Fold this sequence. Notes:
The chain is an alpha+beta fold. The protein has two domains: 12-38 and 91-307, Hypothetical protein af1432 (Orthogonal Bundle), CATH 1.10.3210.10; 336-498, GAF domain (Beta-Lactamase, 2-Layer Sandwich). Helices cover 56% and strands 8% of the residues. It has helices at 12-22, 26-38, 44-55, 58-68, 83-90, 92-108, 118-134, 140-152, 155-163, 165-178, 182-190, 194-204, 209-215, 228-248, 251-265, 273-293, 304-307, 336-352, 357-371, 411-417, 438-443, 479-498; strands at 376-383, 388-395, 403-405, 422-424, 449-457, 460-469. Strands 3-2-1-6-5-4 form a six-stranded antiparallel β-sheet, with helices on both faces. Helix 14 packs antiparallel against helix 15 (251-265).
Amino acid sequence: MPDTAARPDASPLDAVFEALREHDALPSIGQTLARLTRMLESDTEAVQELANVILADVTLTQRLLKLANTLPYRAGSVPVTTVTRAIMLLGFNQVRAAVVSLVLLDGLLGGGNVQRLRGDFHRALLAGCLAREVLAGAGNEEAEEAAIAAMFRSVGRLLVAVYAPAAFDAVRAAMKAEALGEGAASRRVLGRSFDELTEAVLKLWTVPDRIAAAAQPLPLRLEAPRGATERVRAAAHFGDEVACTLAANGGAALEKALAGVLARFAPAVAVERERLTELLDAAATRTRDMEVACGLSPTESPARRVLDALPADSQLGAEAVQPSAERDAVGRPANAREILLAGLADATESLARGAELGAVIRIVLEAMYSGLGFARTALVVRDPAAGVFRTRAAFGEPRANFSFPARGADLFHAALAHASDLLIANVDAEKVRPNLPDWFARDFAATRSFLLMPLVLNGKAIGFFYADRTMVDDRGLAPDELNLLRTLRNQVVLAMRTK
């Protein structure tokens, strides 16, 4: 943590901005949040990019899968074992909002801060979940962006609490002793309000304007929203103010404070008292699920009076299979077979439910990627009109981009012509390198071993699955691993035949 105590002239905010520049986690958190909030569900590439962001962080993957396996989210008896299927079940925007909350809050509250800031953590989560419930009928994208904006409302507050704790305590003391609002108290102690700090941080993180604007303070006099942007902003602030009110009040004072919030927001968010109770119940359930996914107990929350009205336990379904921390020299997890089997079950279940072809493809690619620890996996298909093979979907970064003529004389074309699986342990081997195409040496310079598995339909290779590593793989694949990969490939063939 930055130390400003040695500099008497240092402002408490110096520690915050120094952390934003130099702390090991914060710059990458900002980059990830900016990338997530820029995503729009426009095509399968967006789904693929979202899955790649999640899979790049093992802890994030585990927490998302745990969330997807809670009873309110589960569909059917088969556990969710892949990120791709979690996106299919929960929806692109819901997963994106959940991942934003996990990245933001887990990143800021690491290093022993969780218990000290437990209430603020809950407050931010509840605000986001409540904002989402307010717009649940307006459209999925609006609801999830309101959830993200509501959580971002807490960024300035949390950064000060983590990196300038003495100043944070002074703000709270001023609020209590002088009956000041949080904005006035934080401006007195810090020289700028938590809201102003939030605005500066979101700009530093290059969060899209539409979300940054939704997190900015509202005018004192509210009016009916004139479009989606204003609806999102109003819902985000409503969620934040209700969460703050729950955290700061109890008993009769709570009822009076909530009535004040409802009256102020009436022109922009028309919610009656009974409807607020329904929204809080739904938001509290979702908040509890998020806390469980983060490994926290909701009973520690200062808003326990809301949660106590709900069933005590949030039962989880069967645990998803997670890659073992024990890995071999090339990164293959010790439980590779179990992960591949789970992926196969996922693909089979998705086929039975009539999932689109692209979803089945992504499940298979993810199972290969996670189960065998490959650096990248891809499905490449033939484009008959252009006479070339092109990448259709891929996992891992940098993305494995293929574009080469459908005809040729090299190892790739030989494997496709004979519909033969090809496993190259070392691309620099004497008998291998001369038979690789020039484009491979140019575009795949970092690859040291790879797998090619042709995709055959009606007797012809219409494409292939590809997976590679940046290191030599002398061990190769065990017979059961290869058989499982072939079975996974067959699920894609089956999906193609039924579409």
